[in-house]
Amino acid sequence: MERIAVVGMGARFMTLFAKRLKNNYADRVAIVGVCDTNRVRCEYYRDTVNQDVLIFDDFDKMLDELKPDSVIVATPDCTHHEYIIKALEKGYPVYSEKPMTTTEEYCLAIREAEKKSGKKVTVTFNCRFMPYYAKIKELLKSGAVGRPLSVHYEYQLDTKHGGDYFKRWHRSIEKSGGMMVHKSTHHFDIVNWLLDDEPVRVSAQAARLYYGNDDRPHGERCSTCEYAKSCYSYEAHHEKTGTQNMFFKAEHIDGYIRDHCAFKSDTDIYDTMSVSVAYKKGTLLTYTLDMYSPREGYNLTVYGTEARLEASTFFDSGDKYKIILTKHNGEVQEFIFPAAAGTHAGGDDRMLDMFFGDEKNDPLGQCSDSFDGAKSAMIGIAANRSIKEGVAINLTPILDKMR
What we know:
This protein is of the alpha/beta class. Helix content is 34%, strand content 25%.
């Protein structure tokens, strides 16, 4: 039985780990302690999922008293390093939510702490476990496109999903690293993994063109907004039972607002981003993220010496994922994937099965370590720096320090 302590009782822990570990792995895993700066969220987990769990407001005390087998870190991104390093120093392996952390210094500190402790950090990159990304990995690994020459990855968030990042703590680049770190870490990791390669140079541009604009009619927060009926980003979070109990009923403790207006100007993250990445083996990536599309989806194209692979979907089209492989000789292969059951197109369940279930064979290398976490985070961190300084960032000497 793996006894796990958790720090950070936000939405990600509740949607990914909470009920799944209790319902699917009760004979293998037990959450024995939880810690959060807001006790209300801990109590909500205890009362609705795990009545036997112990609640702490001090992370060190939780580890010292419970002596768990491992630790889950699911706090705001800018604090991941603090808890990861403390857990490693006390001798515990860590499952860290993505992104692993938000700065170059924190990445290096985590890597050094891991080496000293001999314990492992696993980063929860669930996209690697989505069936259609796994199929792309299989095709590239088999040589279906030959040597990858360029990758073009266009990701679009709609006005509800994209706007939601401007309503919560992610709206501060200091806390989240901005979307280049918090959101795009998924996409950068996927490309790193698909190519089995390492980024060496990054340049980027970005702007805030849609959100954070006081000129638009807006209120203070969704739950009290007079413009709710005409706002494409409006969501009634205050009417959702889980969100109400975890956040709205917890506001009196720490003042955290879950439904800030996405159009208030007191945000500093971008909503329009373009990144260019050069890889060690020569592949070039062009990547864009736009957060205000009428439809949500993506298009990922890999051009190789032997073929072109295109994977694309819009999530409002029945969640069907299509992969088209076009060879230079004119041969075309098409693969259609209905979305797998479960959250994140089936990726969450498959990832947890690999971590806590019987399946330990990992032929595609879907489990990710701290260096994977560092490579992905550093593309976003370097992109932010490139935007600010107007220069390309050489990642090789930075990543060399983290090996």
